[in-house]
Amino acid sequence: MGQLYQTQRAMRHMRKAAMQRGVIAILDVGTSKIACLVLRFDGDAPALDGVGSMAGQSNFRIIGAATTRSRGVSFGEVAAMAETERAIRTAVQAAQKMAGVRVDHVIATLSGARPRSYGLDGEVEVEAGQVTGSDIGRVLAACEMPDYGDGREVLHAQPVNFALDHRSGLADPRGQIGQRLTTDMHLLTVDATAIENLLYCIKRCDLEVAGLASSAYVSGVSSLVEDEQELGAACIDMGGGSTGISVFIRKHMIYADSVRMGGDHVTSDISMGLQVPMATAERIKTFYGGVVATGMDDREMIEIGGDTGDWEHDRRTVSRAELIGIMRPRVEEILEEVRQRLDAAGFEHLPSQQIVLTGGGSQIPGLDGLATRILGQQVRLGRPLRVQGLPQAATGPAFAGSVGLCLFAAHPQDEWWDFEVPAERHSARSFKRAFKWFKDNW
């Protein structure tokens, strides 16, 4: 446990140093694209109309942006090191060139990696009658650590709720008078190898990692509006190789998971169904795709095109209804998986159960209607918040993770390693994935 805790602390210090220098880059390493945005921090940038304080607009603007096609990443995890390293280098160099500055520090996001959520709680007596930072460190240390298994690392460890004596729902109890302090903490673990591979690729590009975040988490930060984060909502981020799920309440993430399927799997089904190359399948999906067929779609014919040299093969057409028939089963399968994860998280216990779809895969026409039917909740399509300097081309749902990562870089939430946590740890009792605090505390 100690080593990653130290790494995370070191990253936090590095982030502070980079912020003082005024420039930091964010790196969204996905299965279909790698995006790099360069942020400049200045204390007094004016806030934009229509952008709330949540956007952290007060202090950064994007001065460089680049995306490149991702290579060597599958299911949101690095599969081929050298290729991923090259793609990261391409994106970072292009963004630096546009920004006209050199960047040494990046904050990166991790999708896939089989995330697992745990709800922990701890309690201590307040030492001096008034809560201090050291009491917070002690109460976090009092949380029983789950035995989350070998080969796993903690990616996030966030106190999501404090209670002092009988007052629950405190965001920050420091300075308050009371005797008994309790906390609920959300712990997110991921495959250690996935973290190590990503860190290795970034270091090979001569960059220092100043932070790591779950891509499901940052997508929720940028796509859920303030009320949704407060009252309860889930963000479903449909990427190319994986679909991230995060659940928020009281402005904190309390659950995250991912489904190892995304838009690329839909493309692959089209490629096999129509016997066309992946690039052609992607084009057909983007221009003609959908999940709800109407009578019109039987008559709308799509030219497949091709360059095999076989005239008959290359001038085939397919009806849009047939295309939808290929796409819909896979999209339904992804949404069914998402529903199972939300059920496991106890999502139905939240006072509000809004669902927001985002990510590049969320742009399939008719998806929101299908999702409403399968997930059985109010579903809306989400676009990330507007942030200063973001190029028009990067304002769509495919950039929810990138924009969320900017907000995370500017305003990271308190995590366990931000406090002085006493070294003595309790033995880890067996621990079930508890979401009991839903019923008790909200």
TrEMBL record:
<dbReference type="Pfam" id="PF14450">
    <property type="entry name" value="FtsA"/>
</dbReference>
<dbReference type="InterPro" id="IPR003494">
    <property type="entry name" value="SHS2_FtsA"/>
</dbReference>
<comment type="subunit">
    <text>Self-interacts. Interacts with FtsZ.</text>
</comment>
<dbReference type="InterPro" id="IPR043129">
    <property type="entry name" value="ATPase_NBD"/>
</dbReference>
<keyword id="KW-1003">Cell membrane</keyword>
<comment type="function">
    <text>Cell division protein that is involved in the assembly of the Z ring. May serve as a membrane anchor for the Z ring.</text>
</comment>
<dbReference type="GO" id="GO:0043093">
    <property type="term" value="P:FtsZ-dependent cytokinesis"/>
</dbReference>
<dbReference type="GO" id="GO:0032153">
    <property type="term" value="C:cell division site"/>
</dbReference>
<protein>
    <recommendedName>
        <fullName>Cell division protein FtsA</fullName>
    </recommendedName>
</protein>
<keyword id="KW-0131">Cell cycle</keyword>
<dbReference type="Pfam" id="PF02491">
    <property type="entry name" value="SHS2_FTSA"/>
</dbReference>
<keyword id="KW-0472">Membrane</keyword>
<comment type="similarity">
    <text>Belongs to the FtsA/MreB family.</text>
</comment>
<keyword id="KW-0132">Cell division</keyword>
<dbReference type="GO" id="GO:0009898">
    <property type="term" value="C:cytoplasmic side of plasma membrane"/>
</dbReference>
<dbReference type="InterPro" id="IPR020823">
    <property type="entry name" value="Cell_div_FtsA"/>
</dbReference>
<dbReference type="InterPro" id="IPR050696">
    <property type="entry name" value="FtsA/MreB"/>
</dbReference>
<feature type="domain" description="SHS2">
    <location>
        <begin position="24"/>
        <end position="223"/>
    </location>
</feature>
